[in-house]
Write a structure and sequence with these properties.
The protein is an alpha+beta fold. The protein contains three helices and five strands. The chain has a single domain, classed as Roll (Ubiquitin-like (UB roll)), CATH 3.10.20.
């Protein structure tokens, strides 16, 4: 069971409280997580990735086991702690400014 933490605005849009739990068979990657998330919550399509290109939207970041994996290949295997559900996969809205 994969655990996913969404930012508040996406939790509100998808009408979920807390973490989302997803079953993913096979290789666990950013793309497989996002595919499963968008299949279960179709209202999220286009919010995290572009509809056409499936490229990550600007200012959206991904974290796995306290590491920023945003710029890693979306098809790269994620750490075992994510695949086993020991740690959540975080989708964060980046904040600009300073």
């Amino acid at each position: 069971m994969i655990r996913v933490v969404l930012p508040l605005h996406l939790r509100t849009l998808s009408k979920v409280d807390g973490e989302v739990q997803l079953d993913i068979g096979g290789l666990v990657t950013t793309n497989t997580i996002l595919d499963a998330l968008e299949a279960r919550y179709p209202m999220l399509r286009g919010t995290i990735r572009d509809h056409e290109t499936r490229a990550r939207r600007p200012r959206v970041r991904f974290f796995a086991v306290e590491e920023d994996v945003t710029h890693d290949s979306p098809d790269a295997r994620l750490p075992e702690a994510i695949a086993t559900g020991a740690a959540p996969f975080l989708i964060i809205g980046a904040i600009a400014g300073g």
